């Protein structure tokens, strides 16, 4: 039976071309021009994959993800983005998107990502749960130290600020804290603050009453009330708007929430875990983050080290990700050759555990033998020198930096990540070349 793909694209010419491409490659495909018509299509027919543009006339891909999550739809979705929207695309993946594609598309990449998305078995229990790291423990000294700190703070009521680079497993650390706390039998609800718009955030966090705004057609229970007596994990908390930070601070201080449109407070008992890969002290200095909220969240600070500082753990995690990939893709790859493990340990892993997981999945998908060998790795993993300052080519550094800053919409943290250098190196290079935003 042919796989059916639902395409959401308001550019008629591009959408028709994409639909024709799908037909040529053996897929059935239907084209919709907006969110509302696509939602109607999803409720009346069966689809195996959704390809959705990020920006649409009546909403965006994030709204579609929220809508699908509320209805527990397990259909994989790939978000199509334009130049400069990578940060939003990453937020979409945290919310449940399987992958994203940047326009203009490379046909071979499009085909590979569609085949990978279609090959993965959906999780019926919670299809839109943020992809958490496996519940296995590293053995490196930094990992052991982190677990010791987790076990010390878990039984307390202290708010914990979890800091570390993107992809290091900050949500995994939050789960460990919750599961070793007296609240372990109550809800743990993770919130990707980067996916919450200024308009959506108060309703998602605190709830709303029917009729409180145009689209409020029924009462909504907010995340804090849903997590009563449990834990709320605020991922990338630095992305919350200043106005929502004010409401959040009030909630933490008074242990109450006030739904949008209500005049009454609701008592809640919630422990807060927050995470960030941004230096919040810089955000405070720039007036983007409240200092009083920072101190309220940072009663205890937990550092999650990057994978390159835990090389002794790479083989352990690679084998776990291989086991998961075998299960997802119905494969039976038995492991890695010693030479392959050596190459994995030499890689910088700027994307940390998330990058390692994605790499292993691709290697398993295309594996033709029962063991992954060294000669299979370079085709899928862009290895580079581990020295941060050598990641840029000296002959066109300025051009690369300016391109990355444009692509990141001026976000220096994201630009540094795209360049695979740390933020301090980026600042120094910007000063050297006189680059100003």
Description:
This protein folds into four domains: 116 residues, Rossmann fold, CATH 3.40.50; 163 residues, Rossmann fold (3-Layer(aba) Sandwich), CATH 3.40.50.300; 69 residues, Orthogonal Bundle (Helicase, Ruva Protein, domain 3), CATH 1.10.8.60; 46 residues, Arc Repressor Mutant, subunit A (Orthogonal Bundle), CATH 1.10.10. It is 42% helix and 14% strand. It has 18 helices and 16 strands. Strands 2-1-3-6-7 form a five-stranded parallel beta sheet, sandwiched between helices. It has a five-stranded parallel beta sheet with strand order 9-10-13-8-14. Helix 16 packs across helix 17. The longest helix has 16 residues. The termini are far apart.
Provide the descriptors you would attach to this structure in a database record.
alpha/beta; 437 residues; Helicase, Ruva Protein, domain 3; Rossmann fold; 16 strands; 5-stranded parallel sheet
Task: Give a concise summary.
The chain folds into 4 domains: 4-119, Rossmann fold (3-Layer(aba) Sandwich); 141-303, P-loop containing nucleotide triphosphate hydrolases (Rossmann fold, 3-Layer(aba) Sandwich); 308-376, Orthogonal Bundle (Helicase, Ruva Protein, domain 3), CATH 1.10.8.60; 388-433, Orthogonal Bundle (Arc Repressor Mutant, subunit A), CATH 1.10.10. Mean pLDDT is 84; it is low at 123-134 and 384-391. Strand 4 and strand 5 (59-60) form a beta hairpin.
